[in-house]
Amino acid sequence: MNRLSTSWGAYDLTRFPEDPRDQLRAWSAADAYLLRHLAGEEEAAAVGLDGAVAVVGDRWGALTTVLAGHARAVVQITDSFLAQRATRANLARAGLAEDAAQLLTTRDAPPSRVDVLLVRVPKSLALLEDQLHRLAPALHEGTVVVGAGMVTEIHTSTLDLFERIVGPTRTSLARQKARLIFSTPDPSRAPGPSPWPRRHVLDADSGAGAGLTAVNHAGIFCADRLDIGTRFLLKHLPRARAGAHVVDLGCGNGVLGTAASVAEPEAAVTFVDESFQAVASAEATFRANAAEGATAEFVAGDALAAVPAESVDLVLNNPPFHSHQATTDATARRMFGGARAALRPGGELWVIGNRHLGYHIRLRKLFGNAEVVASDPKFVVLRAVKGRR
Q: Is the pTM for the entire model greater than 0.70?
């Protein structure tokens, strides 16, 4: 837990899931800079918060938690299930009511009017583009639009999006390696609908995925092509038995689980990701390719926390090794532990990972075994089997 001090008081904030070993903060210098600006501490007058305030991309709920106690109406819009859970916990820790802020996902209808729009710049330029397009109709001449990010996260292309979709845009001076973006809504601009989602067909070199149509909502990793790790796993994808329960864990656009379903339509597939955009993409990919009568479930959640213990026969996993800008194996560790709990005795976890990450070491500690199925100079496909009683 770490404390964020603001003009409105100090707040104890945590990420989700809480992990005492996690040294990463639940807020950044960019969050603190934005809050100082709103309070009038950064050379400009304080921003009025008596209208409708929308907070987009708040990574762990720091902005929403602070503003919920001081703005008339706060709406958070996030693509992250974990960020949403962290926000709920941080609001409660601050002594705020459950309805102190309205929590929306990127798949929900946006507010019809926004008087103050605060954007925590995401890693994905496509997600920023999509969200600005979706929110543009809610802006008016008097809307205050402020973006925030670390200097390394704000590029010319970032500013171009604000300029093209919202209106005239400028940036602040840098403070503690963070920067603000100020954009003035121009009602004469008509940016039109979001260009997302996008589709592409997997080529013949895609193993079990060859010929599948992938549907990608904004923010999905490698949205315009098949990422090379997934491509390598598709070339060695295990075939599920009829009636098996398969989980595509960290599903992204769902090509792994969809390929498994196409190969064995009588297997039931659960697609799980903490990104609401990813779950929507997986569902669209599955619907575009699956055989009639094939069954699937689509879950936005924390790894396999919502999947009953010992109910799964096969887990397919391409774990991320970044959390926003930080490199960490925390997500992979949680996925592997969740997979072991969810698998039936004799069930299998198949993992694709960069060779240097050493996933085989952790899998051997958890499962007592880890077999190398395939490898090349960059990737390794690992298979771990849950022991029988």
A: yes
